[in-house]
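Same chain as my last thread, 410 residues:
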Amino acid sequence: MIPARITLISATALAGCAAAVLAQGASAVDGARFGTGTGVEEIQAQLAAARRQGGQARARAEQLEAQARKASEQAERTAREAAALAARIQETEAAASAQEAQARLVAKARAGLSARLAERQRPLVRLTAALQRLSRRPPALALLRPGSVRDTMHMRALLETMLPEVETRTAALRDEIARGRALERRALAAAEALKRTEAELADRRKQLATLESRQRLASRAASGTAAREAERALALAEKAGDLGTLVEEVGRQGELREELARLPGPIMRPPRPQQSRVIEAADFAPAPRGLGAYVLPVGGHVVSGFAEALPNQRRSRGLELESRANAQVIAPAAGRVAFAGPYRGYGRIAIIEHEGGWTSLVTGLARLDVRVGDELVAGAPLGMAGPGSPLVGVELRKDGEPVNPLRYLR
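reply #2:
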């Protein structure tokens, strides 16, 4: 009976070990601050989206870094370096989101394992306890009771029959415990990776802040013109009845500026009349260009789409994106800042004029890093989203008419 006792003691010890692994695993996951409130498929979709967005941001950063190296003028080089840093920040934010999603998947797996261990642990504990009581009954006790010898022999035979089942369940429990410890290691590794990513994110934000300070110092010469433009933009915001009216008015002023820019300037008289020639209007007009590359201003997922019916509101004229806390917000395309500041009900907003009659509106910023009159490259930093799970809106218009931004993403 010694092997039987060893098997039973081993099974009991494993049951206790299972409980300890469950407690340690739960503590590791809780300590990493990862919730388990969403389904596995949804978390997997979030993980895939974060990885995709991270890859796009990395490709954009590499392109901007290459452009910065080729730029001949310091102002252009600095602008592209800032845009590249903003893209690197978005890449790091996407990496953090992916790590959080992975940790939530681990937490989901631990929750399922906990349920299985608890289910297997209860009957095994009851079985081993009963069999241990039988195995400990002294043989001398059978001589003092009539019929007890026969009963004891029957119980011994039953015990030997049940031992293979106990061993099978013990082996299965041992495998589950090993999986639990592996999941615990994965949870701790995910927490450490996220900590490193958050430190990298903070470092890149400091680099961007330093670069933006250099940009502001370099552009002080134009501060008088920028201040006058900002005053006019604020006056427009006060007159506009709603945000749509403000965007339309800004768009009209942008069209007027483009028309004025296309007008021919003064033509010098040639020194010899015979050298004169007819100058076509097309000689003065710049080559028409469209919107060019367009990107979403912030990483995250779409919570309301273009033309979607909203509760107690008219249909959406753009997209609303839910991003991570304090996410980096960028210019969707190259252009000129026509408005930058707070607007009632929308937080801080930025309106950007692009060439060819295109206009972008970005809403929901907690901090703005641009001002009216700034010329932005595509991907230039606009500011930051707010804490918690902030909502950032983006509208794209062509000649004042809202269009779906998703159709123009590159």
